[in-house]
Structures are given as structure tokens and as C-alpha cells.
Amino acid sequence: MKQRIWKRNSRYVITAFFFLVGMLAMVSCEDDSLYTEKEPEWLGESIYDYLAEDGNFNYYLRIIDDVGYAEVMKRTGSKTVFAANDEAFERFFQGNPWGVARYEELSLAQKNILLNFSSIDNAYLIETLANFYGSGQLNRGTALRRASSISVLDTVGFESGAQLPDGPHWDPFRQSGLYLVKDDSPWPLVHFLDRPLRRAGISDSDFELITGVQRNGDDAFIFDSRIIERDITCKNGYIHILEEVLVPRVNMAQHIAENERTTIFSSLLERFSAPYPAMDLTDNYRQINPGFNDTIYTKEYFSNIGGRIQYPDLTVISDQYWLPFNPGWNSYQNPTSAGLQADMGAIFAPTDETMEFYFNSGSGAILKDRYGNWENVPDDIAALLLRRHMRTSFLESVPARFHRLRDAENSPIPISTSDIESAYVGVNGVVYHTSNVYPPDDFISIYGPVLFSEDTRVFNWGIRRNDFRLYLNSLVSRYSFFVPTDEFFENYIDPYAFGMDQKAALKFWYNTETEAVNATVYEYDPFTQTVGDSLRVITSASFLENRLLDLLDSHIVIGDVESGARYYRTKGNNTIRIQGAGENLTIQGGGDIENGAIVNVTEIYNQENGRTYFIDKPIQTPLRSVYAILSETPEFSEFFNLMTGFPPPATSQDPDRRIFVTGNNFFGIDFSTRFFNTFHYTVYVPTNDAVNDAIEQGLISPWVSRPGIQGIEDMDEGPSRQEAIDQLERFIRYHFQDNSLFIGGQAFTGLFQTSTIKLDDEETLFRTYQDKYYRVRVQSSGEDLVLTTEIEENIDVVSARVRTDGGFYNIMARDYIFNSNPGNVVNLESTLFTNSAITTSSTAVIHQIDNVLRFE
């Protein structure tokens, strides 16, 4: 007994010796097991001898003997053993996952696993167990895991077809079964030690929620088994005594699959797994078992972190089917951590009862309505749900940090500690069994009905290809989302082709073979508004993405379109006209109004961030530019004539005074408004009489008569020709205002910038500063627009009114900018058409007013 006490008290002396002779590294002895034929007798007992002399480890010693490991435990080397005494084994036989009631019922494989899972192939004190080398440096007091001595060869098992997951990748083995390992990487031990727990901010209450046991003081645990005696020094390593037998743990995926309370969640997870032949493992196994002639497979999950991104047949797996990480990877390593030891993963796995309740009520009901049962939920949708519940970092997912959990798209996860029914610490992370489901924003946002519907695959493809998911999933705003269903996704008049001699209408359709959108091109007659013969099919992804992006921008309204107004601006600065409400709602874009078309609602979905309206045709935005409308409307002719007389600049250094331009960076359907800049505007067009009166009064000079600007000679008295041109340009631009304002049933009053800059410092009605844009005050009762300009003495003076008697108001225009000139494209078969793109656009509403607007 005295000798035993001396040995325990001398452990630190011996540790120093190990350090000096190189048996232990700076942090721990991490050399492979070393054996010598002769050893210094004064070192005392080996691990085996210590356990034998103690007299309380008979079961553990029997395991060592039965697996043929006695010599290893007797000789010098470098081992760490987490042993359990006989009392612990008696409790183990009273209840364990294997159903083993006495020692004799343990198989050799089980004995191997029990021993090797409780051993580490290097010598560690509890203090040094918390340290590790990673990323080229020593990381002190941060380690959570360490690889055990288990050999993957000990885990090879045969699984019958009935034991295999459902899915096409497992079906080839449905009849024959296969030899399978759940993962071919080392099985780590998870150790909860005082320093790492404190550094990670894991409280005792967190620890109890995670492990189910209480922790006091500086208690150390291997998984949930308390270390009741630590740092027993032997000549070939250390022994740490555990309160309970260390039952081998499995990885998170395996636990979820084997847990009878998480079968639904597991069935979803298993869809993203497949068997892959492990030839190196097979060869090694054959060396030990010469009669083995089969192939061993490993179970892999689809992920770019520790998993596979190719199917077993080597075809590439679409990233929409990737999990955040491989949940079956025993040696999982967080990509942002310094090594395996520093962190692990976490999964929030709802129980079956929770999954069923979610599916039959609340936001999950839309899933049930669409698919009927969990088995019918498509893989891409199941993947979204799984990703929301999988965490790449355990340390960032401990209960104390639940309040700030966010998913990979930075959306909050509304979880609380009361949601956790129990937890399981696996070799690669923690599984929290939850009483809540945390659906992704895709399910509850305005995107959800599009995602779930088989009738909206065209728009869904456009959403995914243009990365619109995050926008539609934003829960901080409210939207109205109009979605043409596939059945009606036709007769979209292509804006680029509208600038060609040969016009075209497109029908978008989903190609199930290529899982992509195609478009059939049809002839279109703008005069009769009829669609003719089909000409070709476009499969160019860039063309289709571009057109669908433009459609998406014109089908989303920020806000509620049933608020009582008649006009609403879309995300892309187009305006739509709304009439009616609910399922009787009708919509018209500028192009629809031009053509007398009406878009009808077929279904409405009330979502967390707004409403999704399924509609019976795409909303057509305006196809006429400001130039086209003014040039084609006789009532606008006098103002239009003033706008089109500006000559091009004589040199590249001269300012461009033209209102309408084309070429260079202004390729549109016809002419573009030069100073428009991807925004929405209002254009006030004085009546022909008002323009002529202003000319008669000498307020402005025309181009050719009474007297005209073109007749001004530089020697004439009065303003020079250039000054007259500048003055006319400034006068015209004062009729162009930022922000599209409609007569639409709602009253408002505001000051709005025009396109004319103030050049002097004289005080005006609205106190506009020099070098700022002049403003105009607009007031509406809901059925009119009344304007007051800077030149007036007070805001009660009416400078002009929008005329509503002739119908020349609320006219929508759109100035497109394309990547090339459609006027140069001969026909729709040309690759120039296929390569065309809508680069940007500006929109405007045009009103006729009864007087000219003056700023000076």
C-alpha cells in the first residue's frame, strides 16, 4: 500500500522524466506506442499491472485478455486509458444499448470496441488533454475531442437490404445487402474539461442540458461519464477512472437513424446518402480475413464538407442537394476551426411527434396540402429544411447562444432551451431532440408557394438562377408577389425584338429532361396584336435568365397592393394598375394597358412577409419609350418639336444638349431620354396651346420661327444661339421630375426634384440652393395633380394642373437600354438576338398639363 501511495504521489516526477526522454511531447506524448525489450524496473507498474493489483477492474482486464491486448498494456509505450471498475460494469450489464446482461454475452467485436473506444494511443494528463497543436501553433485549453484507438476494421458489418435507407442509390443492394461501415474515419472521444468549458462559455446548466448530468466544480467528463480519479501514472501511460462504463458513441447521423423518436427526420437525412466502395479498407480487411472476397462500402452524405459531391456513378451532384456538412463523418472538422479537437457539429432533430404536428398544422400545412406526406416532399425542399437544422459549430450552438442563432443565410432561428427535450453527444457533434420544427424562410415567405407548386417551375427556375431567394425570403419587409403559372407563361412580347423589324412573343416552358427553362419564339404583329407561327426554341441560359430577371423585377411590389390605391410601383421601377381585391383582383402593366389586356388572379397565398398571387399571364411592362409616346401623340407635338431640335455636340468636349439619344451606350427600342438614370420619373407635357402661348410671350424660343433659334446670328443683339439653346434645354428639363406620380385615388403633397440645376444664389419659393436641382410642389386630392413652381410667391399659387378631360394622363413609358442595337439584327434566328440582354431601364409617367412650368 505504501508503494502504491508513493507511486501516485510521484506521478509528476515521472511525467517530468517522460518529457526529458521524449516520451511525451510539449503538450502530451503523441508518439506511436513504443515497446522495448528491457525497461527500467524503477518505473513500476504498467497499466495492466496497476489494474490487476487494484483488484476492482476484473471485467476490464478480462476484456484486455480476451482481445489479446495484455502484452500491449504490460509493456512500455504511450497510452491513455479510461477504465471503469467492476461496480460500473455491473450497472452496465443491468442496462445498455446492446442488451447484454452479463459478460459472457459480449461478442469479441463488442469487447474490441469497448476497449479501444476507452483508449487513446498517446499519453495524456487531464490537463494536457485540453491542449492540441493546430494551424501551426499550440492551442491551450480549447480541445473538445481526441481520436480513440478504435480501428475502422472493427466496425465492418453486414447490412441486409431491409436495413438500408430508401433511395435509388441503395436499391442495387436491396436484395443482396452489403458490407458497410458508417464512416471510415477515426472515432473521437468527446471530453468536457474545465478549461475548455470555461473558455467556450459553456455553463453548468448548458452542460446539464447537453449531457443530462450535473457538473460540479472542475469535474471532467468523457461524454457524460464523470472522471472520478484522474492522472494515475504508469510506466506506459496514464489511467483515468470513469464513473460509468464508456459505451461507444456513434456519429450524429447514425444516432438519428437508430433513434426510434427521430425516424421522420432521419428518413429525410438519409435521402442525401449513398454507398461508395472503400477499396483500401477492403484490401486491409482481406489481409486480416483472407477468406473475405466481398467489397466493403462506406456510407457517405452529399456535402462539400467531409462528404461527396459526386454520386457513386461519378455524375456531379447539384449543390441544391448538398448538406451543410457530412453528418456521418466521425472526424468532422469545422472548416473555420484549427482542427478536429477544437469543435464539432450540432443538429437540431425534431421528434416524430413534432414533425407530424408541424406537417398537420401551422406553416407546415402548406407542405401537407401540396405533397400529402413527408415521403412525397421533393429532395430539394427537404434539403432546405435539413440545412436549417444543421449547425457547423457546436460551440456556436450551445444553449447560452440559442438567442443569437442564425442560419447560413443570416436568418434568425427561433429556438429556446425549452424546445430541447433531450440531447445526445456523438463522436462528431451533439444532437438536440427538439419539440419544434424550424422551417426555412423559403417555406413561410412569398417564395414558398412558388417553391412548392409544380405549376410555377418557370418562375422558380428564374428565381434560383438569378439568386432571388434571399430577397423573397426577407421577413423584414412585406411584399406582393405576382407569379404567372407555367400553363399561362406565354405571349410575353420581347422588348429587344420589339426594336427589330421582326417582332417576337415568347412562351417560356420548363424542360423536365434538362431541368431548365426554354422559350419558344413566335412571330408577333403589333398592329393586330396577334401571335403567329413558332420560329425557334431558345435554350440559352443567359438569355432566359436575363428575361426572367426583368420579369421578376416587374412582378414584385414592396407593400400591400390591396391598400386602396390604384397604382403601385414594382421592384424594377415599373408601375402596375390594380383594380378589385382578393381573387377578383386584376392587374395591368403599361404594356397591358396599351394592348387592352387584363391579368387575372387565380390563387392567393397569405405568407409571413406578404401575399403571393398566382396569375393567368405575365404582366407586360410598357413597350413604348417617352420618345415614342410624345412623337406619336399629336396633342404633344409642339413640346415634342422643342425637344427634338437640339443638335449633337460639335466635338467630344462639348456638352450634349440633346433630350433624346441613341447609339453608344444608349441602345434602346428607339430613342432614350439622355438624362434618365435607372429610376422612375414624371414628364409634364404642356398642351400645344400652352407651348405656343409661351413662345408668343417670349418665354422660350422655338427652333425655326417667331424668330427661331436656328436663325440667331452670333452678331445679333440679345442672347447668342448657344445661350438660347441652353435656356431651352433648361426649360424642357424643368418638366422632367424625379419620382413617378400618378392620379390614383390617394391624396398626397410633396416637393420633388426636377432635372434643371439652379445656377444662381437668388432665393426662390422652395429655397433651393445654388447647384442643386430646382423643385416643384405637387399636390393631389387623389383625382388630380396640382403643380406649383419655384417662380411663384407662395405655395397657394397654382402654376399648372394635369388635364384629365382628354385622357392624356397616367401614360406609362419605359426607356430600355440593351447591350446591343436591335435595329441592326436582321431576324430572330440570329445569334445577335440570342445574345441580347436588357441591361437596364428607366420608367416614366406622362401627364398633359394646361400650362408651361417656369423656374425663372
Automatic annotation (TrEMBL):
Residues 44-246, 443-619, 623-853 form the FAS1 domain. Gene3D superfamilies: FAS1 domain (2.30.180.10). This is Fasciclin domain-containing protein. It comes from Alkalitalea saponilacus. The lineage of its organism: Bacteria, Pseudomonadati, Bacteroidota, Bacteroidia, Marinilabiliales.
